[in-house]
Amino acid sequence: MTDPRGEHIVRAFDAELQELEHTIVRMGGMAEAALETAVEALARRNSTVAAEVVQGDREIDLLEQQISERSIHTLALRQPMASDLREVVAALRISGELERIGDYAANIAKRAMALNQLPPMRPAHSIPRMARLVQSNIKRVLDAYVARDAELAAHVWESDEEIDETYTSLFRETLTYMMEDPRNITPCTHLLFIAKNIERIGDHATNVAELVYYLVKGQRLEGGRPKGDTSSYTVVEPPEGGRGRAATEESPKP
């Protein structure tokens, strides 16, 4: 004989988990849109749109607080075990990753407003392509979360290397422009920060992919995280004939 009270508790718990999932997806969509809008504001040199991204970050922060409070309440009240415990902990940690994505998008928007006061710079044209790669990963990892698709999450995890390589290429190009003309230093510095923010957003999307994989499989992804960022080893060579060139040294051997 089924205990009606037990069924009620299970249904209530399922409803709480579904509400957490829905809020995560909503928050993820807002973070993805914030990145897209911030980069659009940069490309179109639209400070009004950039300011809207900065203001909108507050709503993402509020959702993260709601998820945190609900997750802690569920852990205390339900004391979930096994896969149910992973569901709650994953929601709590994923919300933190998405909140950071929103913060970086707001930072990009702030830099865009500063750049809009300066003459356009050619390296800025490479930013949207890099951002599209990151946006694709955000969307795919959210799809993986909703579908509980560990394979898709692993694909997102692996594709972060392409984003790192794009960042390194942009880093070298921007350094070259800075060496060619000191007047380029200020705008190029803003561009470097923007590119780094986008690269970090990619890292947070990768973190979400790891959490989704663990949520589904109950184990972590094996092997080291693929990395293609060699900007840490980039050095500036002395100008030759009035032009400088950025080079990347070989990574030091362990």
From TrEMBL:
<dbReference type="InterPro" id="IPR028366">
    <property type="entry name" value="PhoU"/>
</dbReference>
<dbReference type="InterPro" id="IPR038078">
    <property type="entry name" value="PhoU-like_sf"/>
</dbReference>
<feature type="region of interest" description="Disordered">
    <location>
        <begin position="223"/>
        <end position="254"/>
    </location>
</feature>
<feature type="domain" description="PhoU">
    <location>
        <begin position="24"/>
        <end position="111"/>
    </location>
</feature>
<feature type="domain" description="PhoU">
    <location>
        <begin position="127"/>
        <end position="212"/>
    </location>
</feature>
<dbReference type="InterPro" id="IPR026022">
    <property type="entry name" value="PhoU_dom"/>
</dbReference>
<keyword id="KW-0592">Phosphate transport</keyword>
<feature type="compositionally biased region" description="Basic and acidic residues">
    <location>
        <begin position="240"/>
        <end position="254"/>
    </location>
</feature>
<comment type="function">
    <text>Plays a role in the regulation of phosphate uptake.</text>
</comment>
<comment type="subunit">
    <text>Homodimer.</text>
</comment>
<protein>
    <recommendedName>
        <fullName>Phosphate-specific transport system accessory protein PhoU</fullName>
    </recommendedName>
</protein>
<keyword id="KW-0813">Transport</keyword>
<comment type="similarity">
    <text>Belongs to the PhoU family.</text>
</comment>
<dbReference type="GO" id="GO:0005737">
    <property type="term" value="C:cytoplasm"/>
</dbReference>
<keyword id="KW-0963">Cytoplasm</keyword>
<dbReference type="GO" id="GO:0006817">
    <property type="term" value="P:phosphate ion transport"/>
</dbReference>
<dbReference type="Pfam" id="PF01895">
    <property type="entry name" value="PhoU"/>
</dbReference>
<dbReference type="GO" id="GO:0045936">
    <property type="term" value="P:negative regulation of phosphate metabolic process"/>
</dbReference>
<dbReference type="GO" id="GO:0030643">
    <property type="term" value="P:intracellular phosphate ion homeostasis"/>
</dbReference>
